[in-house]
Amino acid sequence: MRQYFADLHVHIGRTASGRAVKITGSRTLTLSNILRYSSYPKGLHMTGIIDCHSPEVIQEIELLIEKGELTELDDGGFQHESGLVLIPGSELEINDETCKGPIHVLAYFPDLKALKSFSVWLGDRVTNVHLSSQRIYAEGKELQEKVKALGGLFIPAHIFTPFKSLYGKGVSTSLSEVFYPEMIDAVELGLSSNTAMANNIAELHGYPFLTNSDAHSLAKMAREYNSITMASPSFNELAKALKNQEGRKIAANYGLDPLLGKYYETTCNSCEMIIPDKAGECPECGHTRKIRGVKHRIAELSGDAPPPVRPPYIPQIPLEYIPGLGPKTLEKLLNHFGTEMDILHFVPREKIAEVTTIQLAESIHKARIGELVINAGGGGRYGRVSKT
Prior knowledge:
This protein has 388 residues and is α/β, with parallel strands linked by helices. It has two domains: 258 residues, TIM Barrel; 51 residues, no CATH class. The protein is globular and about 60 Å long.
């Protein structure tokens, strides 16, 4: 039993033929590139690719199996020749009559048979099955039942973001308004929140928390990720970890400080200034519409029930966010020490200082433990790491 690094929310921008999957995703975000990049330079052991329902992506998976670059595991998932394990999944948008607004959810499948079956079923319920994050013309509970019938995992995505999420717009107060609570395997926190914040909501106490990148480019992969204790990376081992079974578990969540998220603070919808949550109009421009901050929505949903003990949430700042650490310096570090995970977790700061500078080594150390100074984000703009 050991700990494995996993990012379970990565998009595909284009297929190998150039066909769009996630329209807002990078053109370089192809299946093959994700598999290679996850292993090096990122240093992940498991990657969840959540646009695998797309028929062309399924064809690519089959081709990689034929070429010997992917192997379907008996325990579920697909092992790449690099050692990385792919967990195939799908992101969908629910907006049925039970919802107050759109909700994004993630579904993961154990094998090619289940994935292909889901893609065929989905094709009759979305406008374009080739695209990511499509609105499904089915109720959330019907989708849950289908995912479970195929042996899959069901996880609401980035549950607090103001747009297209469970608590952002989707429900008034409870997930039971839309879903079967017992058919939810975990919840994804998303940017602008962390474990301490979400753990104040009583109805989430029975679910494990996941921190994933929602990457729309190769560079953003592992912006947030999980350390998971398993015998080996596979679908079945992941399922056991989410249930905390047989020694498998979520060991730690590595995520951005909520201040770095795009929706932490309440902001004016017009001038994008951070404003008081209770403000009737923007003090700056007088506009009356606002984008409500995640911290205020969570406070509204929080109660007095004692929170459960959870794995540590480590507010780690990705290497690309660190002032003074440019592409050439990062390449130098990778050449010396291996992967980004090695640099963030295992290389002593004295060794980093030998390759770069004492100041940069200290910044990387502070990034590991969340001690860099941050200016809060809001209204769709990311927070910033201070240069001072």
